[in-house]
DNA sequence: CGCTTTTGACCCGCGC
DNA sequence: GCGCGGGTCAAAAGCG
C-alpha cells in the first residue's frame, strides 16, 4: 500500500491557503483545504479522480502535526519556527514538512544529501537526523525525524531551496536506488549490519504533477497564485512523491 | 581516495 | 541569569 497524503499550507501577506491530496494507492483521492490562519484548516474538499471535480466540502478542525493513520502520509506546510542558520532565522524561509508513515518510509527527492548531525529528542522517543545537500554551497537542508518505537513513521522537513538542478543519474536504476532518502539509506546501512532487509515491493508509480496542476487551477479561483508558486517551488526543490 | 556516516562537543535561542 | 533543548560543527571511522 502506497498512500500519499499531501498537505500544503502557505502564508503570504497574512493569508494562508492549503491544499492536500491523497493518493490511496493510485486511488487519487484528493482533498483541498483552505485556511485563514496558520495551521488551521477551515475548509476541506475532495476531488473525484474520475470526474476530476469536487465531491464535497466539509469543515475540519485544526490539523494535527502528526496524524496517527497507519499509512504513508506526506505533509507540506510552511513553518515559522526559527532555524539555527542565521540567514534562515531572519528570513521566514518556507519550510516543507513531509510526514511519511509507511514500510518504505523513504522519499527519494532526486538530490544527494549528506548527513551532518543526529539528535535524540523528547526523551529518546524521537531521533532527528540532519541532512544538507551534498552540492557545495547549496543551502538546501532537511531534517528526518523518526520515532524510535515506530521506525515506520518518518517526518521530513525541508528547509531552503536547491540552487542547482537535480544531479544527473549515472545509471538509471543504480542512481535511483542510490538517491533514496538518506534517512532510508542510513537505516539501510544499519540494517546491513544488523538484520537483513526484506525486499522492497515494486509499487506502482504515480505522478503528482497533474495533481499539483489541478490544485493550482482550483486555487487560482481562490486567489491563491501564491499557492501555485509555492507548489512550483516545492517541485523545484525536487520532492518526488512517486511511491517506490 | 573520495564521500558519507557517526558522535560528542559547542553554540544559540527561548522559557522560567 | 540559568538551564534546557534544538541545531550545527568537526574529527574520526567506515564504505565503495
UniProtKB/TrEMBL annotation:
It holds the Pfam family WRKY. It is found in: Nucleus. InterPro entries: WRKY_dom (IPR003657), WRKY_dom_sf (IPR036576), WRKY_plant (IPR044810). Its main location: nucleus. GO terms for cellular component: nucleus. SMART domains: WRKY. Signal peptide: none annotated. Keywords: DNA-binding, Nucleus, Repeat, Transcription, Transcription regulation. It comes from the Eukaryota. Residues 196-207 have a biased composition (Low complexity). GO terms for molecular function: DNA-binding transcription factor activity; sequence-specific DNA binding. SUPFAM superfamilies: WRKY DNA-binding domain. Residues 158-208 are annotated as: Disordered. Residues 102-167 form the WRKY domain. This is WRKY TRANSCRIPTION FACTOR 32-RELATED. The lineage of its organism: Eukaryota, Viridiplantae, Streptophyta, Embryophyta, Tracheophyta.
Amino acid at each position: 500500500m502506497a498512500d500519499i497524503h499531501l498537505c500544503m499550507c502557505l502564508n503570504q501577506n497574512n493569508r494562508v491557503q492549503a491544499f492536500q491530496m491523497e493518493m490511496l494507492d493510485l486511488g487519487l483521492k484528493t482533498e483541498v483545504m483552505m485556511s485563514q490562519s496558520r495551521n488551521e484548516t477551515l475548509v476541506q474538499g475532495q476531488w473525484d479522480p474520475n470526474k476530476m471535480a469536487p465531491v464535497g466540502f466539509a469543515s475540519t478542525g485544526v490539523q494535527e502535526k502528526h496524524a496517527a493513520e497507519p499509512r504513508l502520509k506526506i505533509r507540506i506546510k510552511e513553518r515559522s519556527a526559527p532555524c539555527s542558520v542565521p540567514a534562515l532565522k531572519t528570513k521566514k524561509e518556507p519550510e516543507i514538512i513531509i510526514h511519511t508513515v509507511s514500510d518504505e518510509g523513504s522519499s527519494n527527492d532526486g538530490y544527494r544529501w549528506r548527513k551532518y548531525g543526529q539528535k535524540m529528542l523528547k526523551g529518546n522517543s524521537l531521533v532527528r537526523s540532519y541532512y544538507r545537500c551534498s552540492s557545495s554551497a547549496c543551502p538546501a537542508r532537511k531534517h528526518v525525524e523518526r520515532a524510535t518505537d515506530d521506525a515506520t513513521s518518518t517526518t521530513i522537513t525541508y528547509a531552503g531551496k536547491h540552487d542547482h538542478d537535480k544531479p544527473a543519474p549515472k545509471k538509471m536504476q543504480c542512481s535511483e536506488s542510490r538517491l533514496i532518502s538518506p534517512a532510508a539509506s542510513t537505516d539501510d546501512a544499519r540494517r546491513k549490519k544488523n538484520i537483513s532487509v526484506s525486499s522492497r515491493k515494486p509499487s506502482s508509480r504515480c505522478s503528482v504533477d497533474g495533481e499539483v496542476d489541478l490544485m493550482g487551477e482550483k486555487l487560482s479561483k481562490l486567489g491563491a497564485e501564491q499557492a501555485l508558486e509555492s507548489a512550483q517551488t516545492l517541485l523545484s526543490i525536487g520532492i518526488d512523491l512517486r511511491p517506490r
